[in-house]
């Protein structure tokens, strides 16, 4: 068993790798190739380079090899051995202290900043590896980059939709009056409050029947079938535990009450839907909607 | 340029030529950025844009709007869904902070598969 | 009613005030008292929103108000705006206080932003039927109504956009507005990004740092003060059947705002005027679709006809019902409706930047989608 954290600490302790010099000094032909490819018509890059090019100068090239003291390479190797064989970049944060002038020759050093995991992600279980690179002209730091990758063990079968990180999802407040509903969801039952006095069906529920005044609410188990009464497609801002854009539908159940829930698929008013239950954890199962197959 | 100002929406057609020429111009020779067969073999739908190009496009989106006098100080990006060949990459942006001459612009680059890139760019504009 | 608004005051409207919410409240209140020609020592009542973070006693300390005999708060977010004046007017009429300051101040842009998902709000049982399902922002909650309204009446995103266009047009000529000199076209509206379909960015009001305060006193006393009084002809609150905060989705009809219907009935009954007597309408506009529904609830047009009423140009400054001459919360600033009351006072005084001619009566409404309130201000009691 490889102790990833211990290995990470060992690599981090080594600090910055030795400076690696760019193949070429900052030069106009490469700048112009870059401008042409990106399609950037900015007129200012005749004596200085576009700041976003900083990493380009020190790319390893067609036959590039990682240097032995490169901390990212070392960390990748350890995680490969630990079974986390796939990699995807997640963040690149670049800060430019100044623009690079044509003729300047940059070098780069990299250190390992952080390794956290194992975390469950949409792609599979993995480790987030963060490095910090600094570009120098002589002794002067001219730019920096925090770069993060996820090194992961690919999930058996890629889920059609990334799993909602549980810690993130907004959890409902639950009290005496609403407990029956969430207990029902845990048992994959969609429960509708039913007055023990007059039989009134009511959602959202409450302790006293507005029709007859009885305080003995019961419930019935809904068929979980209904039609979309209204819906929104939510884009902004981000909602904890959700991936935008997503659809929330107000569904009118066959029993006559309305209920909100996320809807998988293309929404429209009148769309026949049925309930599905998604287990978040032992305490919480969320109801949501999907289009009915028999529609 | 005030907080809340939106940048004009900008569309980039990620043709295979675009994906490959930008990969090479950024000296990124990983096969998934220029060899479709190998990209598919590795489980991708097609070749896709490399990170250095995404960074460059984000910078260009902001400087096209802010003008050549603006100085780019920071490009912070989070990467999401890959931008494959034949995708249209749509950029949206908005000024979210301003302190004197320092502006922060929030940028989103999106394809039909979802957000390819979200991030912020810090620039300094002339007084 | 035997009460009038004798003073109005505001801070600058910004995206980052650089000062505490208490300072904003104190600055706005002091400005309103200066405008009214009164001193803090004249004040014996304070009213605000329950959402306001500034305690009455804290505001009193900053202003040097020696004693208070009346202090009160109103619930339900922006629905409280006109009700603060109602509370003040009732206090003045019943003799519980002589001079009441109503205030609202916040750093809603640089501090706590209402437009973000308020995870903490999910602790409320009512919200447990919406937030965990992903419906956690005011825009999304309004979008649910808007979709159904479009479905039933054939309204379009462009019909909503016309409200934004007219607000921004008015803001463009108001130097105090955030969007001064920045009008938009319907095309701009249609090109703006989705926030929560069917709502676009330009259907949503701004987020603002700032404060607004109003001074309410008796009609007699107001007559002796420097500015022309804006008489409170009617001030009412309203909540409807099966009412929720922003998510009253369980009523038969989702195309209405019954709570605003309650307010409307009260306003027309108590003021003795009707929709055709209104010279300027300051309607709460945090999201454009609810402006259309308000026009219907208040009786300016029939159900489902607001889109045609708006398209006719009625809401222009020279139209039959000039809307939000200051630019509203889409154009001037989002001060939870209190800046709209200040604009109504200016229209009655005849001192607004976009002054409508011969204003006798101004209608003001408060937050929509929540239990709400309204005002009719006029030249005479
Ligand atoms: Zn009953």
UniProtKB/TrEMBL annotation, chain A:
GO terms for molecular function: DNA binding. Residues 25-145 form the FAS1-like dehydratase domain. The keyword RNA-binding does not apply. Residues 182-216 form the ChsH2 rubredoxin-like zinc ribbon domain. Residues 223-277 form the ChsH2 C-terminal OB-fold domain. Keywords: DNA-binding. This is DNA-binding protein.
Automatic annotation (TrEMBL), chain B:
It comes from the Bacteria. It comes from Lentzea indica. CDD domains: SAV4209. Gene3D superfamilies: Hotdog Thioesterase. This is Acyl dehydratase.
From TrEMBL, chain C:
Residues 20-218 form the Thiolase N-terminal domain. CDD domains: SCP-x_thiolase. Residues 250-371 form the Thiolase C-terminal domain. SUPFAM superfamilies: Thiolase-like. PANTHER family: ACETYL-COA C-ACETYLTRANSFERASE (PTHR42870), NON-SPECIFIC LIPID-TRANSFER PROTEIN-LIKE 2 (PTHR42870:SF1). This is Lipid-transfer protein.
């Amino acid at each position: 068993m490889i102790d990833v954290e211990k290995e990470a600490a060992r690599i981090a302790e080594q600090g910055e790798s030795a400076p690696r010099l760019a193949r070429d000094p900052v030069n106009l032909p490469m700048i112009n190739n870059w401008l042409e490819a990106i399609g950037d018509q900015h007129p200012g890059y005749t004596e200085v380079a576009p700041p976003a090019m900083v990493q380009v100068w020190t790319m390893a090239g067609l036959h590039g090899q990682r240097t032995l003291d490169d901390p990212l390479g070392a960390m990748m190797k350890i995680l490969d051995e630990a079974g986390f064989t796939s990699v995807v970049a997640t963040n690149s944060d670049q800060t430019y202290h100044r623009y690079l002038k044509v003729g300047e020759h940059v070098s780069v050093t990299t250190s390992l900043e952080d390794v956290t995991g194992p975390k469950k992600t949409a792609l599979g279980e993995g480790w987030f590896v963060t490095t910090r690179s600094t570009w120098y002209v002589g002794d002067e730091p001219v730019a920096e980059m925090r770069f993060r990758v996820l090194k992961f063990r690919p999930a058996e079968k890629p889920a059609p939709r990334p799993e909602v990180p549980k810690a993130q999802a907004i959890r409902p407040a639950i009290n005496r009056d609403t407990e029956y509903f969430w207990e029902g969801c845990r048992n994959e039952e969609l429960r509708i409050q039913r007055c023990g006095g007059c039989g009134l069906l009511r959602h959202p529920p409450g302790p006293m029947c507005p029709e007859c005044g009885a305080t003995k609410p019961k419930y019935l188990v809904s068929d979980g079938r209904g039609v979309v009464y209204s819906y929104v497609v939510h884009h902004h801002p981000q909602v904890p535990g959700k991936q935008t854009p997503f659809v929330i539908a107000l569904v009118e159940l066959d029993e006559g009450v309305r209920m909100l829930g996320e809807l998988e698929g293309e929404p429209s008013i009148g769309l026949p839907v049925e309930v599905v239950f998604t287990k978040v954890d032992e305490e919480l199962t969320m109801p949501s909607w999907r289009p009915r197959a028999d529609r | 340029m005030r907080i809340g100002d939106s940048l004009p929406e900008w569309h980039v057609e990620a043709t295979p030529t675009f994906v490959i020429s930008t990969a090479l111009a950024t000296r990124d020779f990983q096969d998934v950025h220029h060899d479709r067969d190998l990209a598919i073999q590795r489980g991708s739908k097609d070749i896709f844009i490399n990170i250095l190009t995404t960074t460059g496009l984000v910078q260009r989106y902001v400087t096209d709007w802010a003008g050549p006098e603006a100085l780019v100080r920071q490009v912070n990006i989070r990467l999401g869904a890959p931008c494959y060949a034949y995708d249209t990459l749509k950029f949206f942006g908005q000024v979210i902070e301003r302190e004197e001459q320092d502006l922060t612009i929030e940028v989103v680059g999106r394809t039909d598969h979802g957000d390819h890139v979200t991030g912020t760019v810090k620039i300094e504009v002339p007084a | 009613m035997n009460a009038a608004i004798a003073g109005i005051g505001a801070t600058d409207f910004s995206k980052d005030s650089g000062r505490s919410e208490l300072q904003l409240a104190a600055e706005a209140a002091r400005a309103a008292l200066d405008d009214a020609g009164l001193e803090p020592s004249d004040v014996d009542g304070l009213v605000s929103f329950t959402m306001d973070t500034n305690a009455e006693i804290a505001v009193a300390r900053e202003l040097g108000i020696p004693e208070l005999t009346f202090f009160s708060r109103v619930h339900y977010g922006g629905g409280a705006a006109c009700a603060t004046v109602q509370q003040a007017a009732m206090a003045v009429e019943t003799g519980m206080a002589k001079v009441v300051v109503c205030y609202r101040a916040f750093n809603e842009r640089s501090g706590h932003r209402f437009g973000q998902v308020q995870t903490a709000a999910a602790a409320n049982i009512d919200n447990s039927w919406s937030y965990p399902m992903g419906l956690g922002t005011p825009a999304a909650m309004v979008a649910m109504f808007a979709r159904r309204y479009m479905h039933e009446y054939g309204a379009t995103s462009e019909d909503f956009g016309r409200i934004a266009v007219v607000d921004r047009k008015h803001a463009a000529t108001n130097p105090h507005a955030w969007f001064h000199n920045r009008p938009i076209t319907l095309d701009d509206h249609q090109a703006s990004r989705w926030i929560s379909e069917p709502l676009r960015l330009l259907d949503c009001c701004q987020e603002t740092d700032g404060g607004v305060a109003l001074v309410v006193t008796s009609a007699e006393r107001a007559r002796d003060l420097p500015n022309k009084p804006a008489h409170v002809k009617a001030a009412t609150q309203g909540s409807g059947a099966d009412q929720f905060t922003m998510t009253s989705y369980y009523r038969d009809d989702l195309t209405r705002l019954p709570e605003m219907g309650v307010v409307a009935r009260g306003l027309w009954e108590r003021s003795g005027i009707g929709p055709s007597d209104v010279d300027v309408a300051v309607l709460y506009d945090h999201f454009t679709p609810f402006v259309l529904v308000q026009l219907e609830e208040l009786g300016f047009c029939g159900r489902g006809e607001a889109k045609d009423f708006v398209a006719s140009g009625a809401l222009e400054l020279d139209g039959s019902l000039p809307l939000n001459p200051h630019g509203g919360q889409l154009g001037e600033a989002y001060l939870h409706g209190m800046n709209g009351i200040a604009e109504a006072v200016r229209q009655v005084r005849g001192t607004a930047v976009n002054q409508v001619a011969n204003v006798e009566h101004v209608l003001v409404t408060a937050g929509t989608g929540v239990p709400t309130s309204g005002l009719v201000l006029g030249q005479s009691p």
